[in-house]
Structure prediction request, 169 residues.
Amino acid sequence: RSRLLTWADLHESIHGLGRRGRAGTLLMRAIALERTPGTSPTESRLEDRFVAVLREDGTAPLLPQVVVGGERPIGRTDFRDPDVSMVAEVNSLTFHSTPSDREADRRRYAQLVAAGFAVAVVWEDDLWSNRSDVLRVVAEAKGAARRGRPEVFHTASCPWPVDCRDPLW
Prediction:
């Protein structure tokens, strides 16, 4: 989380240091298996909670902090499904509730949808008190991605009542 090392750096160091008989390389290889280059650890307690909700349900894990968008990156998403074109954003009220936040998120979600991604937007309150809705939204977004129908899906506590019901953005 302190950005002292990227997962690509970890993999490169294992390649350079790994020799038979060198202590610690077996452990480092095991750690590296769970940390794919191009990803990074979660960045907040809310993201940690999202991971826990998925894990407790037995839902396949998503990759944290992945840059998406190809030649013209849209940016880093909170989570990316490794199997289908689906991303998940974990939104706090602190950073996603003002009119300017809302407009910035709206533009970003439109870019993700235009690039073919289904977007699951999970709101802070639902992570703590409406776990079933978090799982519903993730499942709906994965299903839409499998069908090639990119849309935006919000959990119930979305503070933007009109926008959260509009699947076109």
About this structure: The CA atoms of residues 65 and 77 lie 5 Å apart. The longest strand covers residues 63-68. The longest helix spans residues 99-114. The radius of gyration is 18 Å.
